Amino acid sequence: MDNIIPFLIGHHDSKRNAPIGRDLILSAHSANYDMLTFPITTSHFHSRVLSVLSAAFSDASTNLDESSSRNAAPVAIEPLSPADTQLTPDESLNSIIGTTSSWIDLGSTDPIIADISRQVLRLELAYAAFCGVTHVVIYGPRQNSSCDVAAYARAVLNGLDQGPYMQLYIWTNTHSDPANIKEQVGDLASFARREYVHAHPQSDDSGGAFERWQAWDTIRSICSYSTRLNLALSIAKSLPTPSVLSRWYSEPVRILTLDSSTFRKNAKGYPALPLEHQEYILQLMRLKTQPWLLICDATTLNLPRSQPGEKNESNFPSLNQAANMPSVEGDPHLQYVRHLQTKRSGMNAMDQFGAGYQDYLQAPLQPLTVNLESVTYEVFEKDPIKYEWYERAIARALHDWIEQGKPTSNPDGRVVVAVVGAGRGPLVSRALKAAEDTGIDIDVWALEKNPNAFVLLQRHNETRWNGGVSLVKSDMRTWLGPQTNQNLSTIRKTYNIDPDGAEQAGSPQARTNPEDQNLSASSILMPQNNRYKVDILISELLGSFADNELSPECLDGVQHLLNPVHGISIPASYTAHFAPVAAPKLHADISLSMVNVNPTAAEIPYVVMLDQVDFLSTSTSPSSPVPHTAPSPTKPKTFASLLSKSSRQSSASAASNGTNKPTATPSIPTIYTAWSFHHPNHSIRSPPTANAHNARHCKFSFPVSNPGNCHGLGGYFETVLYPGVELSTNPLTMEEKSAGMISWFPIFFPLKLPIFLPEGGVVDVSMWRQTDDRKVWYEWLVEAYVLQGSRRIKVGSSELHSSEKEACLM
């Protein structure tokens, strides 16, 4: 439990009227709260605004027609006076979250009400910024279809300019519910003139379950995904559907609010939360940026009295210091939430490996052109599953080689094993271990082009492998192949060196390369110019999208050294998979900062541990794809794979997509297979003189059940190392095939601009793997359609994105 960050919990009282200062802050801390909210303005200011509004409406001489008025505002609100606010610049404000007035209506359809509300918001934010308040909550748009959300968003956009260092939080409910509507005295909405209210009648469909999210989406879109605009999400007594909760999970939720009515009494009469509420809160609290919690209108703080002569200035604790203060008896709601923290499990291997890397964009590796550093290899080698699975695959291949009576390529009878791209040697060690466990002698060759890593391989050969590995410093594509030692040592065992044994019963039918079709088993076995073939070729060249680190090109270049009749490649095949996702944080990171450094940043596929993302195409059962080309869909083998955290779903270097989501989610993401590669590839000339055969294209239609924004594509892969041994970062199959693997994170193909996907529509995704024999790059296109009967009507399309300027060099 030492690695669990404590909850930061605040106290909110919607009727707070105690003066802000040392006594109030100490009262909150003594009650075991870490912070508290405080209204920026007082009831005096509220009364003053109501008086101005009432006077304007009753004065016939006042021109309230905005369209004909030359004034900035038909009704002007004077600046704040000392009676209008209790805030003053003070150290105690470090523990304060400011709240704007709940009685304003920024989205009013009455232009006067909307304008006065904007003035109030501007005055409050400007003064809070002056005082040094860095966190301010703004009450969200009203829960009715006549609310002008665009006008509300415009007011928030202007508000962001009032404090350049201030974080704003839009306080909204997870879903529309009449029970969430609370009437209050003096609400400006009640003063809206009838002609404006009637001009915007309520519609029969206010957006359904996603109405609150759509309002938020409008606000943050108009505010250009500002990183200073966040969410304060109210967890109500009844939760919405899992799909709605999953969508909120992908958004920048920085504050969770729990009203006293959300709690229920347990058997002992103490407040408690329903199980589904507990699970969702605990999932949100595992985010990279852990939200704060606000307990609302549960208790009133009792103010302590300062002793005579006691100074008001004091060193107030920071939020982290306050969170670690000793617990004391007090509000039972607070005690329960503190207890809820103890229900969190500690960090597992995936959490520890990915700590700090959630939704962190990284450029893919270019191992062919860049020599990796030792620390990079070390990260890969921490995987508890990957190399164990490789060892299993090697052991099975060795066992089958002998069982099926295949002839070995080395004249001395040993099975020839080559590890190409050996790095620091983990696969070499695993190959030696597999040979030892199966009792089969192997002739091991290790290739590495990185001169720095090669130094370490030589040391390992002396200290770990007893000189039993033949090392070659070379690019695998230029290697001439294993070579016999003229002074062969004594052979301990021989396996199937009789050429007649090449076609023993049970062995697979020979698949010959066209160029090698006249080669007999005996000619394969006999070395030519002291060189011979490789029986088992082992590599770990896969990237987050399977082929994005040029595994096909590398293995094609060395394939001619593989035994053309019986040669085995580990991996034997791999497939790339993808799905459209909502990823607002990643979009903001790219569009607001990265493009300023690199203009092509929005056309680079990134390796990223997907965490705050939401799948846009889901179903309650595996569905068949609507392909425009041949590839088949991925079908989930077990539902358990969907219950892991989004960061756990992918596998490490990035791992995951959609898991930190509520574990009760019944929907299954739609993830389709883009393309596949197989090794050895007997359909090509070896070595190949061109690379056109490695180009790929696919197009799929993804059904969309709920409205959402597509910010890009999440990419994964699956690989068959050897029949019966598979690895996967695909959220649908990873738990079944390689649970706990952390070596790869998913890949993310961004869109320059989000594409809105309407409810009940479809989204077409086209992808290309392109090559010009010098480099490899990807292109992708997203198109949105609505369905009207049998017709598809296009409502949006992205640009054709291309990573050619950041291509992988061959």
SSE map:
Layout: E1 9-12, H1 22-30, E2 35-39, H2 43-58, E3 96-99, H3 111-131, E4 135-139, H4 149-160, E5 167-173, H5 194-198, H6 211-222, E6 229-235, H7 242-249, E7 253-259, E8 264-265, E9 271-272, H8 275-284, E10 292-296, H9 319-323, H10 332-341, H11 349-354, H12 374-381, H13 386-403, E11 415-420, H14 426-438, E12 442-447, H15 451-463, E13 469-472, H16 521-525, E14 536-539, H17 551-558, E15 568-570, E16 573-582, H18 584-597, E17 606-607, E18 614-615, E19 618-619, E20 626-627, H19 646-649, E21 668-669, E22 672-678, E23 696-703, E24 708-722, E25 725-728, H20 734-738, E26 747-757, E27 762-771, E28 775-788, E29 791-797, E30 801-802, E31 808-809
Parallel strand pairs: 1-2, 1-10, 2-3, 3-4, 4-5, 5-6, 6-7, 7-10, 11-12, 11-14, 12-13, 14-15
Antiparallel strand pairs: 8-9, 16-18, 16-22, 16-24, 17-26, 19-21, 20-23, 23-27, 24-25, 24-26, 27-28, 28-29, 28-30, 28-31
Helix pairs in contact: 3-4, 4-6, 13-14
Biased composition (Polar residues): 506-517
Domain PRMT5 TIM barrel: 32-342
Region (Disordered): 497-517, 619-643
Structure write-up:
With 810 residues, the protein is of the alpha/beta class. The protein folds into three domains: 9-344, TIM Barrel; 374-540, Vaccinia Virus protein VP39 (Rossmann fold, 3-Layer(aba) Sandwich), CATH 3.40.50.150; 573-809, Hnrnp arginine n-methyltransferase1 (Distorted Sandwich), CATH 2.70.160. 25% of the residues lie in helices and 21% in strands. It is built from 20 helices and 31 strands. The strands form six sheets. It has an eight-stranded parallel beta barrel with strand order 1-2-3-4-5-6-7-10, surrounded by four helices. Helix 3 links the parallel strand 3 and strand 4 (135-139). Helix 3 (111-131) packs parallel to helix 4 (149-160). The longest helix is centred in the N-terminal third of the chain and has 21 residues, at 111-131. The two termini are 47 Å apart. The model is unreliable at 68-72, 201-206, 306-314, 487-492, 498-527 and 629-665 (pLDDT under 50).
